Amino acid sequence: MEAGFSEMRSELQSRDALWRRLQLECQQLHTELLKLREYNDMQENKIKHQSSCVHLTEQLENQNTELLLLAQSQEHQREELNKIRNHVYQEEEQSHCSEQERMKTEISDLTEELHQKEITIATIMEKASLLERQLKMELEIKDKLLAKQQLLDFQYKVIKSENTHLKEMM
Q1: Keywords in UniProt for this one (predicted)?
Q2: Taking the chain, what is the end-to-end CA distance rounded to the nearest angstrom?
Q3: Alpha helices in the chain, H assignment, sequence order
Q4: I want to staple 100 with a disulfide (CB 3.0 to 4.6 A). Which of 49, 92, 113, 163 is the partner?
Q5: What is the largest CA-CA distance in the chain?
């Protein structure tokens, strides 16, 4: 019976380590998103390099996809945790009262930690969505500025041509 508890404890610790890796990956993705935003800010001064903005959008979409995959993985881990929890409950019925309370506390802590990780992932997904919207708005502004700049360039060339013509006539 004690070996069963030890095995379950080991399994719970393994799951917890996996959750910590997932959280670290989420933090890394968030850091990458911040780096992408900084890179995008630098690109505002280089309107003619719009293809890089499109590339950033694709990267952001890829990261959103990765976040969705992480969320799906989280759901699978939650199901596994529920299976383990159910198994632990069955074992606790055959165990001593103090052992039952200790295991319930441990599962409650893991559930709370899982809930916190769900909140973290949801927050990251919201931030990624916001960054994506901001990037799209910035792209639209850049497109408008580029069109305006091209129009001004054209008008400048026309006026320059007229000036040249007037100088020749004088």
Answers
A1: Coiled coil, Cytoplasm
A2: 108
A3: 2-43, 50-93, 97-169
A4: 92
A5: 109
Among candidates 44, 62, 63, 64, which has minimal Cα distance to 53? 44
pLDDT tens digits along 95-145: 666 777 788 899 899 899 999 999 998 998 999 999 999 999 999 999 999
Helix (H, G, I), strand (E, B) or coil at 48: helix
CA 109 distance to own-chain centroid: 25
Q: Which residue has the tokens 């580029």?
A: 146
Total Cβ atoms within 10 A of residue 45 = 7
Burial class (CB in 10 A: 0-12, 13-18, 19+), 160: exposed
**Residue with token string 């993985």:** 73
Q: How many structural domains comprise the chain? A: 1
